[in-house]
Every structure is written in C-alpha cells, then in structure tokens.
Design brief:
This protein has an eight-stranded mixed beta sheet with strand order 5-6-4-3-10-11-13-12, sandwiched between helices. A three-stranded mixed beta sheet has the order 7-9-8. 26% of the residues lie in helices and 27% in strands. It is of the alpha/beta class. The chain starts with a helix and ends with a strand. It contains five helices and 13 strands. The chain has a single domain, classed as Rossmann fold.
Length: 226
C-alpha cells in the first residue's frame, strides 16, 4: 500500500463501528473531556466497581461523573500535575503518575506499566470496569505492553484518545501508521470492539485530504464476552 492508501485505511478503521451498544451514555463534559460508556447489562459498572483514568490536565469531569453515576472507586493519573497524591472525594484518588510501556522516570514525570500500577494499589484481584486514556501519544507504547500480559484480562471497557499528528505521507509516516495499525490489530485479537468513535475537533484538522481528518480520535471499546 502507498502512504496515502495506508493513511485512508487507518482512518477508515479507527472510525468504524464493530459492536452494538444499545445504551450509550456520555460521562463528563459534552465537549472535550467527556467519554462514552456502554451501559448494556453485561458492561455497565456495578458496585463495587473500579475505574482508572489516565490523563487529566485540568479536567476531572469524567472521573467525577463516574463516581456520581455509578459510585465507583476512581483512580486519576497524571504526571504533569504538580500535586501530591491525595483523595479528591469520597471515592476518587489522584496520583501524579503516568501510564507507560515501562516503569521509569520520564521527562513528563514518573511512568508505570498497568501491571505495576495494579500491584502498587493491590488491584490485581479486582476487576477494572473502565480504563480511560488521554495520554498524548503514550497510548502507542502503553497498549502493546498491556496486551502482552494479563493486565487487561478483566477490563471490559476502554476509552482512548488516539493521537497521530499531521503526517506528510512520507515513508517514515507510513511506518508509523503500520505500527499503529498493528497495535489496533492486537486489540481486536484481544476481543476489543469499537462501539463509538468521535473526532476531537479541538485538535488540528489535516487540510490535505477531502475528508475532515483530525489528529486525535476518541474511541470507545467494549470487550466481547467469551
């Protein structure tokens, strides 16, 4: 495939719907900051539920909405927020840690793998109902590590903002697209299916193409029951 063809293939895949959720609700802001959650009976969070939210900046609306609607225990992570660990509400905890493909000190701050975080907080024997990730390209290094082990084995829903930047469709950019598509293939093989996909129109559009492609796509997945 040419760089242009693989560009179109990526966007066609990331905007497809692969599963039906009969009851979708948006938790958090209607605009940037909110996310779709599936409330079909087999996926709806039920107490005692647990949610991990990666990437906050200044917007806790999703985290607060999850606690308010479902009463879940929520752990909010962001290494760029210069605050110590603290409890924000009855069931919400903030941690100045990011998600990464390895546990290390990063230029953004401390990073940990999902498995190491679950060990740190004694969540290895608890189901995680939802993981939300808006982590500025770190999803591409974090997801392969998650999928290579058992860290996602009991996670039913994922809400991820995928970042691609605005490529010029050179060979380097084609290689990036191939790398990203292989990650999405791994997710599909692990049972995750897209039930909602939305452009983040707050991020830059690529004017090169006829369709209004953007540099960020918000994608919600459910894991098919086996």
């Amino acid at each position: 495939m040419s760089p242009l063809e693989i560009h179109y293939f990526y966007h066609s895949y990331i905007t497809s719907h692969q599963a039906l959720c009969r009851r979708e609700v948006r938790i958090g802001k209607i605009t940037d900051g909110g996310w779709e959650v599936c409330e079909d009976s087999q996926y709806k969070p039920q107490m005692p539920c647990l949610v991990y939210s990666f990437g906050i900046s200044t917007d806790f609306s999703f985290d607060d909405g999850i606690e308010e609607r479902y009463g879940c225990e929520v752990h909010s992570f962001d290494p760029t927020i210069n605050k110590p660990e603290h409890r924000r509400g009855n069931n919400i905890w903030f941690h100045p840690i990011g998600i990464g493909g390895v546990s290390e000190e990063h230029k953004r701050g401390p990073m940990m793998t999902l498995g190491d975080l679950r060990n740190k907080f004694n969540h290895t024997n608890r189901k995680i109902d939802i993981i939300k990730m808006d982590v500025e390209f770190m999803e591409w290094s974090s997801l392969p590590e998650m999928l290579s082990g058992s860290a996602l084995a009991d996670v039913r829903q994922l809400a991820i903002e995928f970042h691609i930047g605005t490529f010029n469709l050179k060979k380097r950019d084609k290689d990036n697209y191939i790398e990203f598509l292989l990650v999405l293939k791994q997710m599909y093989e692990a049972g995750y299916r897209i039930f909602q996909s939305k452009m983040n129109t707050y991020n830059e559009r690529n004017p090169t193409f006829a369709k209004p492609y953007v540099s960020c796509q918000e994608v919600s997945f459910i894991r098919e029951l086996t």
